[in-house]
Design a protein that fits this description.
Helix content is 15%, strand content 34%. It has five helices and 14 strands. A seven-stranded antiparallel β-sheet has the order 3-2-6-9-10-5-4, covered by helices on one side. The chain has a three-stranded antiparallel β-sheet with strand order 1-13-14, with no helix packed on it. Strands 7-8 form a two-stranded antiparallel ribbon.
């Protein structure tokens, strides 16, 4: 067994090690809008669900090393406390990568990635017409991560948009295999698709769990 102490490692080695361990990670493709009405779209792989009711999700935004240090997404959710979180499927992978590029604040990533933007229902940011899933969210907390150049954004889901054919009405679930989400791995260009699925039954005797 090899052991590492983060404080003894050179930057950014702890980041690369962590992201290769916590994998695969889902990708939050986050749409926001400025107070002046400028749309923004960017992917974040520090992302997950944190509560079931009310349904709440989170994503983490890192500050830039250069000025302006505050990314457009963070600036926008502070100005307009709403966002739309999309699932990235295999068909949209290349478009997602195009929106990861740093561009000037006034640039509309929907246009640079050739994505159709459609109005949301409960929030002001636009959503991606072709995304398999879109979650309209209200920001509930913006939490600085202690000791790190990151800010965690939590949002309550106000509305789910699910592509027709993905919803399993008998179970109230989305068919993950049909959704074909992609996930982030540790390498700079490494992503993953859904592989083999299997089921595990939770033991009835919790003492043996």
């Amino acid at each position: 067994m090899i052991s590492f102490v983060p404080t003894e490692m050179e930057d950014p080695a702890p980041y690369h090690l962590l992201t290769s361990i916590v994998a695969p990670r889902p990708i939050a493709w986050v749409s926001t809008i400025s107070a002046d009405g400028i749309p923004n779209l960017a992917p974040y792989s520090f992302f997950n669900a944190v509560a079931g009711f009310p349904p709440t999700i989170m994503f983490s935004v890192a500050y830039r090393r250069q000025e302006p240090k505050e990314k457009d997404t963070l600036r926008n959710v502070k100005e307009v406390d709403e966002f739309v979180c999309h699932v990235v499927d295999e068909a949209l992978a290349n478009a997602m990568v195009r929106t990861a590029v740093e561009v000037p604040y006034e640039v509309n990533e929907f246009e640079t990635a050739h994505l159709q933007a459609v109005p949301s229902i409960n929030v002001r940011p636009f959503r991606i017409a072709d995304a398999p899933i879109a979650m309209e969210c209200k920001v509930t907390q913006i939490v600085p991560v202690a000791g790190a150049p990151n800010v965690m954004v939590l949002g309550q889901v106000l509305r789910f948009h699910v592509r027709e054919g993905l919803y399993r009405a008998d179970l109230g679930l989305v068919d993950t295999q049909l959704m074909k989400p992609i996930a982030r791995l540790g390498g700079p260009m490494e992503y993953a698709k859904i592989g083999e699925l299997f089921s595990l039954e939770v033991p009835k005797d919790r003492q043996n769990y």
